[in-house]
Structure formats: C-alpha cells, structure tokens
Write a structure and sequence with these properties.
ATP-binding, helicase, binds adenosine-5'-diphosphate, ATP binding, DNA/RNA_helicase_DEAH_CS, eight-stranded mixed β-sheet, disordered N terminus, alpha/beta
Length: about 700
C-alpha cells in the first residue's frame, strides 16, 4: 500500500485504479531516485515562481531532472485545472470572450526519441499506463488521449496542433525543453508563444528550459527582439521569472590528440581499447559519432576486437544509440550491464549530448563532428553535412563524463582545432530551407512572414527564396498569400515537396495515391535495404533483389518491394532472403497507416487499394513519377554529353549515389529525393524521367 506522490498545495492527482497496483508499486520504487535529482529540492520554488508569474526561464545542467520532473511538479497545481479563461479580443467586434481552456501541460522536444522515451519514463514514475495521464505525440505515432495531462510532443507536433487550436486551448502550460538546440520548430513555437502570452492568452504559462546559457534571447521581456509597443512590454516585464538549477558537475580532464586524426572511427576504436585496458571499472564509455552507419561499423569493429581479449580483462557491452533505433533497444542504455565485470560502451549520435542522459558514464570520446541539415543556396538544395561541432557542444559532450564522479574526455582532434570552433551552433532556421517554416507561419495566420517575431530572422533573401519555392509548388497565390492548395499541404505532416506529391497523386488522372503513400513511407524509413559483407553474400543479394529491380529507378523499386513483401505469406523469411530489414518494413507499414489517415480528409472516396501482388505497370510508374516531379522539380538533373549529370536548376554536377538502382546507368534525366554531400555531390533516391516531363512542370508552374 505505497503512497502516490501528491504534491503539496495541489488538487488531488489522478485516481489510482486497483488493477494499477503494479504500476503504483513501480512508481513508489522510483521515488527515491527522483528525490536524488538536483532539481528535486527546488520544486517548491519552481511552483511558487509559476504561481506568481506566467513565464519561467529555467537553466539547468543536462541530467538535473528538468524534463522528467517539471510536468510532475506542475500537474497538480490549481492553475492547471481546466477552467474558463478570457481570450482577449476574441470576437470579431473586438471584445473579449470567455472559453474553457487548460487541463494539460505540453512539453516539447526537438527529437522524437526524447519525447517518446521521456513519456515512457514519466508514466513509470507517475504509475500510469502510457497514453493515459502521461502520453506523447510525435509524427506518425500518437500515444495520448482525452485523459492525458502531461503530454510530450515534438515541437513540430505542437505546431501541427496549432492548426486546429491556434490558441492552444487544450493547455494550461507549455514547456519548451532543450531550447538551446534552436531547432526551427523550437524557434517558431517560441515566436507564437510570445504572441499568445502577450496577446490573446494572457493566462497561459510558458516554461523555457535550456542546458546552456544561451537563453537570454529567449526571455520574453528581451527588449531588443520585441516589436510591440514598449508600454505593453513594460506591463509584462514583471511576468518573467528566471531560475537556475545548480548542477552537480564533477571535474572532467580533457585530452586532445597531438595530431589531427584521419579516420575518427578508427581513432575511436583505438581510444576505446586504450581506455578499457588502462582504466578500472566502474566507468562506462560514451562515444560521440555522427550517424547510424558510423555507429554500426564501430560497433562491429569493437565487438570483433573484444573477442580476442584475454579473460583477465573486463568484458565489453556495446550499445548503440540513435533515433532510428527501435525503442526497446534505446531503453537498453539506461539499464546496467547485468553481467558482472562488464563495461558498457555507448556509441551515440548527438542525442546523448543533452537530450538523453546515460547513467554510469565516466569517459567520453568525442569525434568533434555532427551531422547537420544545411541549405546550399547556390544550388537551392538542402542536404545533410558532417560538420565540426561548436565549442558549446564540445563542452556539453565533455560534461557527460562528469555526472557521477570525476571524469575524462578524449577529443579526437587537436587543441588548435578546438580553439578554432565556432562558439555556438548556428540556429537551424538560418541554415535550412525556410519553405516549410513559411508555410507553417502562413497556415497559422501569419501571412507577413517578414514581420514574425523570430529569435533570429532568416532574413529577407532566404525568406524570398522560400516564398519562391512555395510559389512554384503552387501553395501561394500571385500576391504570395497562402491558397487552398497551400492549406492542404500544411495539414500534412510532411515537407512541402512531399505534401505536393501526395496531393498531385490524389488528383483525377494521376490516381496513384496508394502508390505515392507507399513510396513516401518507404523513403521516410531508414535502412530498409541491408548491405551484407562478403562477396558471396553480396552475390546472393544481387540475385534475390532482381525480383524488384526496376529500370525506372528507386521510387518504383521501393513500390515493387512493398508490394512483393505484402504478398508474401512468410514475410520475415522473405525479408531475410532478400536482405531487407523486416523491422524497417513493419515500421514502414506503420507510417503508411498514419499517412492514409492524414490523407482521408482531403481525398474523399478514392479508388480501393490495389491487391498486394498487383504489378506496377509502366503506365502506372509514369503517372507516379510525374507526381513526384510536381514536388521535386528543384531536384532534377539531366545527362550531359560527357556522361555525367547536371542539375536542371543551377547546372551543378551531381552523381547518382552507389546505393541507387540507377547507379552507373545513363538516362535522359533524373529526379531525386535527396541531395547528399560526402566526398562529392550525390543524388539519393533516384528515378529516370524524361526531359519533356520536367519541361511541362517548369512551364506549367505548380
Ligand atoms: P534533464 O532534462 O535535466 O536533462 P532528465 O529529466 O531528462 O534531465 O533526466 C533525469 C534522470 O532521469 C537522468 O539521470 C536520466 O538518466 C533518467 N532518465 C531519463 N529518462 C529515462 C528512461 N527512459 N529510463 C531510465 N532513466 C531515465
């Protein structure tokens, strides 16, 4: 008969059903752990601050308990209850209006992994089923209900909710977590929130949480970024509270390499074993790399080497951590190694920098790089680039070693390189294609995108380019106002180009919505096709994959693959034989289901889904590819006499990526899903098209 944590000064919490006994017992067991978090002793002060003020800016070390505890601290506050609130100037005649609002607290995260993991953890801590009092909502996955009172969502999903609920009437409070990451979503959410708390929803509570000092700009009473009349800001100056959760940070010794390293995966391998032999247990190792591929290759290398270790050396347990990893495996990093005398080596992307705190780490190995979205205005394309981290990120990474005791950080770069790093990471909104952001703003009533209250404005030029892109997609009218097509596009949880493809596919004449959905779902899931090592396996793979090799290119190949997979009675065995990831396929089917739900409201009755085994005729393939062209005219290239490809817009050289079925082939023109820049510029997700179709699109506009 344990006790349920009822916070002081609050209204009673959720009623515990008898069958929830086990959950309740678990919550009870977790309580002492919560009480040890640095933030715990400040809960009274945090509650008091929010009773007095509407905006709270909270600074706290990663791992101090901000994300897991804030919702629990606040959920039982009186102001959390759903009640009548005044919406200022809510009526057409300019008078105030009263509506019911509140009852739930939203906590936004830049990453979906963080949102789902946190919700899972907080549900355990509160002793409830995930999706009841505690839930989450991320793209293509929603585990929340009417009952949900603490809801974790990606910043993108909160923006999505604002389409239907621009005043965020569901919520009494919005917590913007990891604000220092400055993702586009975070920046837009902050701009809108500022408008709301100083405008139509004066009672809404906003909590901005950050792990680094760069929050000054985000404090809502910052004069330099305010556009409104001074008097109004004066009036609300008193509404902002600032709070700092003192961290528990032990000293971390930092080492640099004397010379620049050529291959950081190899350098990481050596460092891990050097450390493993030199340092006693306990003390796990956290390695920062840039992406899944690197992580999986280092994992294999470490596991191979570890086999030849002598019995006197502790064992090694390698645990990867990246977004595309299934939730069960992500959860694994939080658990102890189980087997005694074992060291955990966690290989992570920058998720572990501030989003996720891995316990037990005493040694950090930092490759000094990160994979970032980057817009290249010269060629008008967005691509993923591996770039050096900022100083601020490097310090955060080193800090992960000093959470539980004095630690060490090994940087796989020289001290000189460190000194030359930029102080902070450039906010995403300044380095990505802003078309999505513009559509987001316009669909939520902010037509004048130059005048929006940005933390950092992308600037006139970038906004101009974004407007142009949206215009060519057909989302705007001649006076740059969002039109019906634009609104339709904004309702889809996809970038504007893909939204345009789906809408084109639903049009009569094209009539290939099911096919377009299958392909988009396949494009959105990572690593469907596995690459075996060894010549023999590779031959087997090539032989097996002939079944869905299509001369039209990757889009139609993926479609054929989905159809083949679905028609199999023994899906898992079939997937294995064809070196296709069964898990990724299951994921794909899940994404597809959600996309279908999103499209029902604008398509109306469409043709029935094709039977799984239906073949993709050349005519159907053409219709599908023409739809993709409607969204990807800016991603086309034509063959030039020397046998290489040059982009139609910008005339830049681009090669077909080795992963494509069209690799090494010569076709008149190509459309591609993605532009990646590794050793050189590559098109990934490539299909063959005719120049005539490209021309039609360019002339016809959206
Ligand atoms: P902050 O937001 O300040 O970075 P968090 O609230 O995310 O801190 O984390 C507090 C503690 O809870 C950390 O020690 C972390 O390891 C633990 N924790 C967070 N999520 C999980 C989880 N899913 N499973 C187990 N422990 C977790």
């Amino acid at each position: 008969n344990g006790e349920f944590p009822l916070l002081d000064g609050g209204v009673p919490g959720p009623v515990i059903q008898p069958h929830q006994g086990q959950l309740k017992a678990q919550a009870f067991r977790l309580k002492p752990l919560r009480a040890k978090l640095p933030i715990w002793e400040h809960q009274g002060a945090i509650r008091a601050a929010l009773r007095a003020k509407n905006v709270l800016v909270m600074l706290g070390e990663t791992g101090s308990g901000k994300s897991t505890q804030i919702g629990q601290f606040l959920v039982n506050e009186k102001w959390m209850a759903r009640r009548r609130v005044t919406i200022t100037f809510g009526n057409a005649d300019g008078t105030d209006k009263e509506v019911m609002a509140g009852g739930c607290i939203a906590i936004t995260q830049p990453r979906r992994v963080a949102a789902t993991n946190l919700a899972r953890r907080v549900a355990q801590e509160m002793g409830c089923h995930l999706g009841d009092e505690v839930g989450y909502s991320v793209r293509f996955d929603n585990k929340s209900s009417e009952k949900t009172r603490v809801k974790f969502l990606t910043d993108g999903m909160l923006l999505q909710e604002m389409l239907h609920d621009p005043l965020l009437k569901r919520y009494s409070a919005v917590v913007v977590d990891e604000a220092h990451e400055r993702t586009v979503g975070t920046d837009l959410v902050l701009g809108f929130l500022r408008g709301l708390v100083y405008g139509r929803r004066k009672g809404l509570k906003v909590i901005i949480m950050s792990a680094t000092l760069e929050v000054e700009k985000m404090a809502f009473n910052n004069e330099s970024s305010s556009e409104g009349p001074d008097t109004e800001n004066e009036q609300y100056d008193g509404t902002v509270a600032a709070f700092r959760v003192p961290g528990r940070q032990f000293p971390v010794e930092i080492y640099h390499t004397p010379e620049p390293v050529v291959d950081y995966v190899d350098a990481a391998l050596k460092t891990v074993f050097q450390l493993h032999y030199a340092e006693r247990l306990p003390g796990d190792i956290l390695v920062f790399l840039t992406g899944q591929e690197e992580i999986e290759s280092l994992r294999k290398l470490i596991e191979d080497y570890a086999q030849s270790m002598d019995n006197s050396v502790p064992k090694i347990l390698v645990l990867p951590l990246y977004s595309a990893l299934p939730p069960g495996l992500q959860q694994r990093v939080f658990q102890p190694a189980y087997e005694r005398n074992t060291r955990k080596v966690i290989l992570s992307t920058n998720i572990a920098e501030t989003s996720v705190t891995v316990p037990g780490v005493r040694h950090v190995v930092d490759c000094g790089k990160v994979k970032m979205k980057q817009y290249r205005p010269r060629i008008g394309l967005e691509s993923l680039l591996i770039t050096p981290v900022s100083k601020s990120s490097a310090l955060q990474r080193a800090g992960r070693a000093g959470r539980e005791g004095p630690g060490k950080c090994y940087r796989l770069y020289t001290e000189r390189d460190f000194m030359s790093l930029a102080d902070t990471t450039v906010p995403e909104i300044l380095r990505c294609d802003v078309a999505s952001s513009i559509l987001t703003l316009k669909a939520r009533g902010q037509e004048d995108v130059l005048a929006f209250d940005y933390l950092d404005s992308p600037g006139r030029e970038a906004l101009g380019r974004g407007l142009e892109h949206l215009y060519t997609l057909g989302a705007l009218d001649n006076s740059a106002k969002i039109n019906e097509l634009g609104h339709k596009m904004a309702k889809l949880p996809l970038v504007p180009s893909l939204a345009r493809v789906l809408i084109a596919a639903a049009e009569p004449g094209a009539d290939c919505l099911h096919e377009a959905i299958d392909i988009i779902a396949a494009l959105s899931v990572e690593n469907i096709l596995l690459t075996p090592t060894g010549d023999e396996k590779r031959e087997q793979m090539e032989e097996a994959r002939k079944e869905f090799d299509r001369r039209e290119g990757d889009h139609i190949m993926l479609l054929t693959l989905v159809r083949e997979y679905e028609s199999q009675p023994q899906k898992k065995a079939w997937a294995e034989k064809h070196f296709v990831s069964h898990r990724a396929m299951q994921n794909l089917l899940d994404v597809r289901k959600q996309l279908k739900q999103y499209t029902t409201h604008f398509t109306g009755p469409s043709s029935p889904p094709p039977t799984p085994a239906a073949t993709v005729t050349p005519d159907l393939a053409t219709r599908v590819l023409k739809c993709f062209l409607k969204g990807f005219l800016h991603n086309t290239a034509r063959l030039v006499p020397d046998g290489s490809y040059r982009t139609v817009v910008g005339n830049q050289a681009v090669g077909i990526h080795p992963s494509s079925v069209l690799f090494g082939k010569r076709v008149e023109a190509i459309v591609y899903h993605e532009f990646v820049y590794t050793t050189r510029a590559f098109a990934r997700g490539v299909s063959a098209v005719e120049m005539g179709w490209v021309g039609e699109g360019l002339v016809g506009g959206g």
